[in-house]
């Protein structure tokens, strides 16, 4: 169908030479009627004109965002209105790219053919080079396959050359607070020897806190793009050291700390002979490199601690014989090996994802998301190794327990195990689907890493029972004073004889591929949380494992309150504008979490309540009655600009604030409203 010539001549004059991609869309037909040169170059699609908005993205949920924005503009009578969206852009023959776009009405067009201008911020996109994109996966591979810790770190320093620096040095902050240089690499072997000479003659010291040591102590990255005598004076108090440093011909410098579990374990310095070498993109890449390296350094320390504990165990066995305590400790050590192997399996799977895709480092569904999952899995492995201490330390209160949302844990496990049940299965031509049916459940006082480990074991068992593919279903629900978690599969099932023995330590049907400690470890974790475990299975019909965990934290909260202490997570929350149905849905649940709740039916009541009382945070309904949400939010900001505001809105797709105040809304929750979404928002604004 031929598009009517409705494009004003002024559009080409205004947008033709802009560096950002610009397309004009006719609002009644949602057809593209104009594209500038930048749009042609970015989308690589010949003749966008005449196509609908579907040409911009291949993802239906992102297309919904664009069409929803166009629909809002079509209904608006305000020529100055605009909508902001983010979507994965479809680029013919090239990788998709996440972009930010502003869609606004174009004034002065015919009422019969209103136009919208979609301006995509392509001028500020900074795609990383293929060499940089492959750096993080290669570093992860080197560190995961390391047999010699220091040699692996030396390989990391060499990998940073020459892409990130001419000179790279790696320092470790030992547990006794001494600083050890473990690696140095330079593109010029002569300069590398000079750098080694400098560090051997003038080793870094914590006293004085200069240069690299300051980064170690502060835990903050630094960039210096202009190296002068003032920099040398700061970095080296000794004139002889400064003379040697000048010979390295450094013009730019960057230092990033290694942070693991909130502590600095080392640092990496990157130096270049080019002035003004380091920009924010370089820092983001270096911090990604530092994150992976820090996890490895921390893991190496935990491994050495486990080896030391194992050595102590061997001596104790030799001296004390085979008593019951040592048999239990031996079982626990084997269980730790089993669980750490599961964690390493997930880490390797996630690393394969990093190595097989060429994406933006900041893409939450790409390298950054995979790195976050690697970090979560590595932290769980650390907790598993720490469990060994329970066998040689006195029994004491488990201070590591904290309120846990079991439905949230189930979601995390489904994501963390995806490389095993989806990617590795697909590589074998098998399709396994994981379904989650999750209820809003009360918080449970527990150890989240242990619970994740237990559910991970169950998922892996289900995957092993599905050699031809199938479904794994995970359910959560509340049953009287307990939370029930069920993991069921449509796999091969078990015979009655295997079912009777499956919880016995060391019993396995997997031969050399199994340790026989997966289900016993799950049972141990469940019992540690005061719960019970039930298994139902039939040959050819699958297996169902049910965890029943009692809700114990209410008594704990009451006890702490009677002692005059404040529970760790107790907050005073103000709910404004919610219906009685939603207030009754989330209010009692938040009270059960230990929070104090005040509800206001209208915007006026909410503004008065906030003015008369102190609240930790506000949950605001975007459809609040009497006074609109913008006015209520602005009133709250005038009284306390730092008070977190969580907006609940009727949104589709990605949650974005529909009101405009300064400072802006802190978090947005999309309907349908769930307790888990509210808890996540409370975590997001830093109140957990």
From TrEMBL:
The keyword Transferase applies. Its EC number is 2.7.13.3. One of its GO terms (molecular function) is phosphorelay sensor kinase activity. It is an enzyme of class 2 (transferase). The keyword Transferase applies. Residues 335-553 form the Histidine kinase domain. It catalyses: ATP + protein L-histidine = ADP + protein N-phospho-L-histidine. Keywords: Kinase, Phosphoprotein, Transferase. This is histidine kinase. It comes from uncultured bacterium F25-01.
């Amino acid at each position: 169908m031929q598009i009517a010539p409705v494009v004003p001549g002024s559009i080409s004059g205004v947008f033709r030479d802009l560096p950002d991609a610009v397309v004009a869309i006719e609002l009644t037909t949602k057809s593209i009627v104009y594209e500038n040169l930048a749009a042609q170059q970015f989308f690589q699609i010949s003749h966008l004109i005449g196509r609908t908005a579907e040409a911009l993205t291949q993802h239906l949920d992102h297309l919904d965002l664009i069409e929803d924005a166009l629909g809002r503009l079509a209904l608006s009578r305000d020529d100055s209105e605009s909508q902001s969206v983010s979507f994965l852009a479809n680029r013919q023959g090239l990788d998709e790219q996440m972009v930010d776009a502003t869609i606004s009405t174009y004034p002065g067009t015919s009422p019969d053919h209103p136009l919208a201008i979609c301006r995509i911020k392509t001028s500020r996109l900074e795609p990383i080079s293929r060499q940089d994109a492959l750096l993080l996966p290669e570093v992860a591979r080197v560190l995961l396959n390391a047999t010699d810790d220091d040699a692996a770190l030396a390989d990391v320093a060499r990998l940073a050359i020459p892409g990130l620096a001419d000179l790279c040095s790696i320092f470790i902050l030992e547990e006794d607070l001494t600083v050890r240089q473990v690696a140095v690499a330079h593109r010029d072997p002569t300069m590398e020897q000079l750098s080694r000479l400098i560090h051997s003659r003038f080793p870094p010291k914590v006293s004085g806190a200069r240069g690299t040591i300051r980064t170690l102590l502060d835990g903050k990255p630094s960039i210096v793009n202009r190296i002068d005598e003032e920099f040398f004076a700061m970095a080296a108090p000794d004139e002889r050291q400064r003379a040697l440093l000048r010979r390295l011909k450094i013009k730019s410098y960057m230092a990033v700390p290694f942070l693991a579990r909130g502590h600095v374990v080392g640092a990496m310095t990157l130096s270049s002979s080019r002035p003004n070498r380091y920009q924010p993109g370089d820092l983001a890449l270096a911090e990604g490199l530092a994150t992976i390296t820090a996890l490895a350094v921390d893991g190496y320390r935990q491994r050495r601690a486990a080896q030391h504990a194992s050595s102590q165990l061997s001596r104790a066995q030799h001296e004390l014989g085979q008593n019951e305590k040592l048999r239990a400790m031996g079982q626990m050590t084997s269980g730790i090996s089993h669980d750490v192997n599961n964690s390493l399996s997930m880490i390797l799977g996630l690393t394969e994802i990093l190595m097989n895709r060429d994406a933006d480092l900041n893409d939450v569904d790409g390298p950054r998301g995979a790195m976050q999952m690697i970090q979560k899995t590595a932290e769980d492995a650390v907790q598993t190794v720490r469990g060994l201490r329970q066998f040689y330390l006195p029994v004491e209160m488990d201070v590591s327990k904290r309120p846990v949302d079991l439905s949230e844990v189930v979601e995390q496990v489904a994501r963390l195990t995806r490389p095993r049940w989806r990617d590795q299965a697909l590589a074998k031509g098998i399709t396994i689907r994981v379904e989650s049916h999750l209820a809003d459940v009360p918080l449970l006082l527990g150890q989240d890493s242990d619970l994740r480990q237990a559910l991970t074991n169950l998922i892996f068992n289900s995957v092993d029972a599905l050699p031809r593919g199938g479904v794994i279903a995970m359910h959560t629900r509340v049953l009287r004073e307990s939370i029930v978690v069920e993991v069921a599969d449509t796999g091969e099932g078990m015979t009655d004889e295997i079912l009777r023995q499956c919880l016995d330590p060391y019993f396995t049907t997997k031969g050399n591929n199994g340790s026989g400690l997966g289900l016993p470890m799950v049972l141990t974790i469940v019992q540690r949380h005061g719960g019970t475990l039930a298994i139902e299975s039939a040959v050819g019909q699958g297996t169902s494992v049910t965890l029943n965990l009692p809700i114990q934290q209410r008594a704990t909260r009451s006890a702490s309150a009677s002692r005059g202490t404040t529970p760790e997570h107790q907050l005073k929350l103000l709910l404004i504008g919610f219906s009685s149905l939603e207030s009754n849905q989330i209010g009692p649940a938040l009270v059960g979490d230990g929070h104090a709740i005040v509800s206001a039916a209208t915007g006026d009541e909410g503004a008065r309540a906030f003015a008369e009382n102190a609240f930790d945070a506000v949950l605001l309904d975007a459809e609040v009655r009497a006074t609109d949400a913008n006015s209520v939010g602005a009133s709250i900001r005038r009284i306390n600009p730092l008070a977190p505001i969580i907006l609940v809105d009727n949104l589709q797709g990605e949650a974005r604030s529909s009101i405009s105040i300064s400072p802006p809304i802190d978090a947005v929750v999309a309907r349908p409203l769930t307790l888990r979404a509210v808890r996540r928002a409370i975590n997001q604004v830093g109140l957990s």
